[in-house]
Each structure stands twice: as structure tokens, then as C-alpha cells.
């Protein structure tokens, strides 16, 4: 059976020649089967928040909507672990994840980030 692989679309400017190759099956939402990598909802919440989902730390991925459904509330900035996946400005994120991370309050004014916000329709 062929292994499913893709270019990492989370990294701005990734290409088949330069992008990180990832196994797609690792990014499928356990509840709705969305590919969290392709919908740009790759993140890490604090252990206490993930425990509320009733999943183990290595059970798999959930999109934002499914995690919020499981914990019966919207995620907020303080729910996310302080790790590069949540704090790096060059990572492309869904508008839903971007709003939960509250990036607008911590907006970087570099050219790359400014274009990312424009592309996502976020007012500057």
C-alpha cells in the first residue's frame, strides 16, 4: 500500500522541493475526518484542555470545531500551549484557529504577516 504524503501547507512558501513531507493520516480529525493539515488547523493546546476532550495525548488530532464540541466551549488564547506551532508568525492558519489564538492583538507588522492577514480577510 502506498504511503500518503503531502507538502506541508502550514509553512508559507512550502513547495514539493522545499516543504516538509508529512504522513497525511496523522492529521485526520478523529471526529469529522477533516484533514487538519489541509484546513490549516494544526495546533497544540495545554494538557489540561486536551484532557477535557477525553482523548489520550497520543490518540490523534481534532479540528478546532470538534475539540470545542467535545469540551463544550470555544477555545481561548490561554488554552494554547506556548510552543512554536502556536506562536510562529510564518505558519498559515485557518481564520477559525487564528481567531482563537487571538493573533490580531499580537500582530506582527512584517511584510509576510501583513500579506497573510490581507489574504485571510482580516482588517489591519
Instruction: Quickly give the structural class.
Output: mainly alpha
Average pLDDT, all residues = 76
Q: What's the helical proportion of residues?
A: 25-40%
Q: In total, how many beta strands?
A: 2
Q: Strand order across the biggest sheet?
A: 1-2
Count of discrete domains: 1
| Computed Rg | 15 Å
Give a written overview of the molecule.
This protein has 124 residues and is mainly α. The protein has one domain (5-119). The chain is 27% helix and 5% strand. The protein contains five helices and two strands. A two-stranded antiparallel sheet has the order 1-2. The chain is globular and about 35 Å long. The model is unreliable at 1-21 (pLDDT under 50).
Task: Write a brief caption for the model.
With 124 residues, this protein is mainly alpha-helical.
List keywords for this structure.
124 residues, mainly alpha, two-stranded antiparallel sheet, 2 strands, 27% helix, globular, disordered N terminus
What topology does this entry show?
Layout: E1 5-7, E2 21-23, H1 47-51, H2 64-71, H3 84-87, H4 95-101, H5 111-119
Antiparallel strand pairs: 1-2
